[in-house]
Amino acid sequence: MSIHLYYHPYSRAAGTIWALEEVGVPYELKIVDIMKGDQKGAELVSLNPMGKLPTLVDDGLVVTESAAIALYLADRYAPGRLAPALDSPERGTYLRWSFFSPSVIEPAVMARSSGWEVKDRAAGWGTYAAMMASAESAIAGKHYVLGDSFSMADVVFGGLLRFLIGFKQIEATPAFAAYVERLDARPAFQRAEARNLAMRKQLGLQ
């Protein structure tokens, strides 16, 4: 297999499994014991100086950062199916909400939960309330970010919403709850969940 994912089921790499299952290409997992701090070992740090998961290696090419990995996989292995064409009008919307997830949603949630005092005009993520309103607007009156068509943007954007709702870090508004329910019904998502569960059992983490 040309694709190797450095992985632990209790890391963000668990979400990358969903992206891999959606594109439908073979991949191999390289287990990294984050409980022992192995992500800071020489092998992984040589690939990703941050020493973090997920780290994906595709035929020698290293890609890190969850959103970047997902978009890379869609562009390379599912163009036109999970990623709009470069000249498609949908491409802007696809990129907009994919990057909104790590750039706005995550820091806004972190700021709120940590009690950071920041001025919204000085912080790229604005306020928590503005973030929530913007995130809801992405799927208002639509099944997915691009309307009726599922794309890798839903793995990035919807996957983060699902995670944050599950850990009660954002409110499960009716729009978010219905959207996540649609995502949960996808066969690729269910395969990913089954594989993550199997890996937790295999590693004795249940």
Structural description of this entry:
The protein is α+β, with helices and mostly antiparallel strands. The chain has eight helices and four strands. It has a four-stranded mixed β-sheet with strand order 2-1-3-4, with helices on one face. It is globular, with a radius of gyration of 17 Å. The model has no long low-confidence stretch (mean pLDDT 96).
Shape: globular
CATH architecture of the largest domain: Up-down Bundle
The stretches of 5 or more residues where confidence is low (pLDDT under 50) are: none
Structural class: alpha+beta
The main pleated sheet reads as: 4 strands, mixed
Report the average pLDDT across residues: 96
What name does the CATH topology of the largest domain carry? Glutathione S-transferase Yfyf (Class Pi), Chain A, domain 2
Number of domain units: 2
Order of strands, widest sheet: 2-1-3-4
Distance between the termini: 29 Å
